[in-house]
Structure formats: structure tokens, C-alpha cells
Specification:
The chain is α+β, with helices and mostly antiparallel strands. It has a single domain (11-410), classed as Orthogonal Bundle (Cytochrome p450). Helices cover 46% and strands 12% of the residues. The protein is built from 14 helices and 12 strands. It has a 5-stranded mixed sheet. Helix 1 crosses helix 2, helix 7 (160-174) packs antiparallel against helix 8 and helix 10 crosses helix 12 (273-284). The relative contact order is 0.17.
Length: 414
């Protein structure tokens, strides 16, 4: 007997193109208002449904392709989709690519990552002067590039670092606002294509200059079986976007929150506190603020049966800030992650790195990197916020912090 599909409620009945326009103008506010008004299962368009309850989020994320997939065979990715990367692959192809990268993220490499992070912090702080005003996101981007290149390629990016940083920043900026179809010759589309070409050229240079393998880096792993450059390029690009850029964003948000909470800064040297502060910053300002899956079979959610081909949206921004799962959800409370703290009220209420079989392969490394860098910075300098009320998030491919500026104050030893 064929399934009976039932559409959930939503803004304008979930059928107005105005929903897409409202989302484009203010995605964070639109998704938050939609859940507040219509509940945990919301129709945004006839084929797009937002799921906000951790029960449904968990079922989506732990699914192994039986009911939902990352992308369907017929889905065409946009020009920034990097379709040959692991994160955009499915089935046996995804398993092969994940297995290829997994050794580069094993626990034994964490010590090397921490050493690179400490050296990067020392170099960064050494370039600042007491009383200098800095753009925190810019500085954290440079620092994350240094550390990320050491992990991905086994060496500093050198002359390629600035080119990579500029290309990634441009791509993030240009994908943060509504765009007309990629084939139209608009200024934004032309700038995006130019930035993608610059990224390609810089990544090609990194690959050409890479020495013989053996160091166990991600680039060693990618080049080991001689894949075509397009596959290496897509994988490196997503490692940069999901690693370097999101680390810079997470660090900047954490430093912004610490700047507004001096009591938390004073505790950053305590056992476990820096890790708790990093987790809390990623709760309030998750670099990955929305993700999606597509149904391949009828899918039950909140009493509704959704048809195959429905795009399911999961928003970390919305669920992480839900009072049902996090009391005082709008407040920066690192204590909730310490032993004896409340933590999340549901296992899948907190998913900054996804979860299940497709959870981020580098999640533990990313959290360790943010923790180490933030703790090292707090031990060396105080960053006094400049106009923190002007800070705002820009929801691009990652949740970018805009307007985070600070005055550097050197901390006296001892």
C-alpha cells in the first residue's frame, strides 16, 4: 500500500517563494522564528523541511544511507560544492575516501598538532605590540593557516599562505549572500569564479612542491594512490574550508566571548576549563550552522511522513540555542561542560561536528587545536574588546564573525 505523505506546517504554508527570500535575507533569524512559531518539523518549501528536535536529528545523523543520504545521485552541486571530496561522496566511494584520510587524524598526531599550535601562537603574539588594535578574525585566520598547513601538508604554507587565505576568504564572503544562477555573468559570479581559479592555482602549487610521502600528513594520504588532481583539489579545498576556516571562526568567537567574560579568562589555565569554554563557544556560535540530508525512502518525523527526495535541514544554530536542551541557552556558560555540569539535556542536542558515521573525521583534532591556541593566547596576552556590541555573525559556508576587534595587552610573566 503506497505511503500517505503529510506536509508539516510552515511559514506561508511552506509553499511561498517568499520563504526562500526571507531565508536569504536573514537565515539565522528566519530558521529561529520558523521553529518558534511552527514547532520541531517545519516546511520551508514543498521539498525542504527543517527538523529541530534532537530525536529526529539523531535518526538522520546515524542513518547509514538506508533512509537518508548526504546527496542523491541526481543532485548537482554548485561551483563551490567540490563534488569529488569525501564529504560530498556516498557509499563505497565515501568509505574509500574516508579510510584514506583517517590515519592523518589519529590520536598519535595530536602531540604534533599541539606543538604546531604553540609555535604558531608564539609567532603570532610576537608580531603584536602592546596597545595595538587587531582584527581578531584576520589574526586567527593567519594563525589557523599556519597550524592547518603543518597538519595537512607537513610544512608552513610559505608564500602560498596569503594566497590561500585571500581565496578562502573571498569564497566565504561571496557565498554568504544570495546569488543568481552561476552561469549568469554577474559581478559576484565573476568574482567567485576568479577566487576559485586562484584557489586551484595555489593548491596545484602546493601539490607540485610536496616532497615524498612518509610523514603521515593528509596530503601524503591523498597522493598515495595517485588520484587525479581534481580529486586532490576538491579534498584539499574542503579540508581548508572545514578545517582552517572553521577553526579561525571558532577561535574568534571564543575570544569574543572571553573578552566579554573576564572571569572566564582567569580560569583558562584550570584543568578542563579551556576545553569547556571551546565547547560552549561552538554551542553558541557553531561554525557549521546548518547541514542537510536528502530522503531516499519515506521518512517519519514529528507525526509527518515525508516523501523521498525531501531535503532535511538540521540547524546547529537553532537546536544549540533551545532552552529545552540548554538552560540559559543564550548565555556563555562553560561550566555546563565541566564534570558535574548539566551538559546537553539530549545526546543529539549538540552536534557542532555532526554525528554518526558521517561525523567530522577531524572533530577531536579541531577541538584540541582551538583549546590549545585559546589557552596559550590567554596565558600570553589579554585581548580587550573594542565595541563588542557591533559584532555580528555572517552565515556563509561557515558562521563567520564580523567586527571582532581587540586591543592587545601583554601579560606579565608569573
Amino acid at each position: 500500500m503506497p505511503a500517505t505523505y503529510t506536509a508539516p506546517p510552515g511559514p506561508r504554508g511552506g509553499r511561498g517563494t517568499a520563504n526562500a527570500a526571507d531565508y536569504a535575507l536573514d537565515p539565522l533569524g528566519f530558521l529561529t522564528r520558523a521553529v518558534g512559531e511552527f514547532g520541531d518539523v517545519v516546511s520551508l518549501t514543498p521539498s525542504n523541511v527543517l527538523l529541530a528536535h534532537p530525536d529526529d536529528i539523531g535518526r538522520v545523523l546515524v542513518d547509514r544511507g538506508e533512509n537518508v543520504v548526504k546527496i542523491s545521485d541526481g543532485t548537482r552541486r554548485g561551483p563551490t560544492g567540490f563534488p569529488l571530496a569525501m564529504m560530498n561522496s556516498e557509499g563505497a566511494d565515501w568509505e574509500r575516501k574516508r579510510a584514506r584520510l583517517r590515519p592523518a587524524f589519529r590520536s598519535e598526531r595530536l602531540g604534533q598538532l599541539e606543538q604546531a599550535a604553540r609555535e604558531g601562537v608564539a609567532r603570532t603574539v610576537g608580531s603584536w605590540a602592546d596597545g595595538q588594535t587587531i582584527d581578531v578574525h584576520h589574526e586567527m585566520s593567519r594563525l589557523a593557516m599556519l597550524v592547518g598547513a603543518a597538519h595537512i601538508a607537513g610544512r608552513e604554507p610559505g608564500e602560498h599562505g596569503e594566497a590561500l587565505a585571500r581565496a578562502v576568504a573571498a569564497i566565504m564572503r561571496l557565498t554568504s549572500s544570495p546569488r543568481l544562477p552561476a552561469w549568469l555573468p554577474t559581478r559576484v559570479n565573476r568574482d567567485l569564479r576568479r577566487s576559485l581559479r586562484a584557489l586551484d592555482d595555489t593548491l596545484a602549487a602546493l601539490v607540485r612542491e610536496h616532497g615524498e610521502g612518509g610523514a603521515g600528513t593528509a596530503l601524503d594520504a591523498l597522493l598515495a594512490d595517485g588520484p587525479p588532481f581534481a580529486e586532490v583539489r576538491d579534498e584539499l579545498a574542503t579540508l581548508l574550508m572545514s578545517g582552517y576556516e572553521t577553526t579561525a571562526d571558532a577561535l574568534t568567537w571564543l575570544l569574543h566571548l572571553l573578552g566579554r567574560n573576564p572571569g572566564a579568562v582567569a580560569r583558562m589555565g584550570e584543568e578542563g576549563f579551556a576545553s569547556a569554554a571551546a565547547k560552549e563557544a561552538m554551542r553558541l556560535y557553531p561554525p557549521a550552522w546548518v547541514m542537510s540530508r536528502e530522503t531516499v525512502r519515506p521518512f517519519e518525523a514529528g507525526g509527518h511522513t515525508l516523501p523521498p527526495g525531501t531535503v532535511l535541514g538540521l540547524s546547529q544554530w537553532v537546536t544549540h540555542r533551545d532552552e529545552r536542551w540548554f538552560p540559559e541557552a543564550g548565555e556563555f556558560r562553560p561550566e555546563r561542560w565541566l564534570p558535574g555540569g548539566s551538559g546537553p539535556a539530549h545526546r543529539y542536542a549538540y552536534f557542532p561536528f555532526g554525528a554518526g558515521p558521517r561525523g567530522c573525521v577531524g572533530a577531536s583534532m579541531a577541538l584540541r587545536e582551538v583549546r590549545v591556541i585559546a589557552a596559550e593566547l590567554c596565558a600570553r596576552v589579554r585581548l580587550e574588546p573594542v565595541d563588542p556590541e557591533a559584532v555580528r555573525p555572517r552565515p556563509a559556508l561557515a558562521l563567520q564573525p564580523l567586527g571582532v576587534r581587540a586591543v592587545v595587552r601583554t601579560v606579565s610573566p608569573g
